[in-house]
Design brief:
Order of helices and strands: EEEEH
Structural class: mainly beta
Radius of gyration: 16 Å
Mean pLDDT: 94
Number of strands: 4
Number of helices: 1
Distance between the termini: 20 Å
Strand content: 35-45%
Length: 61
Amino acid sequence: MAAVCDICDKKPGFGNNRPWSKKATRRRFDPNIQRVRAVLNGTPKRMNVCTTCIKAGKVSR
């Protein structure tokens, strides 16, 4: 599943793993994406939505 929100277009962020040895390796910070059945223009549709949008009420389930 793609880690992109259909509402706010939130995508993964990138950074480094920093262990005790300070050896930097790349990593991904994925948003918390949930597959929800939302009502869009009066019709129910399955969407990939981040939990921030669900909590903010941007999508009606």
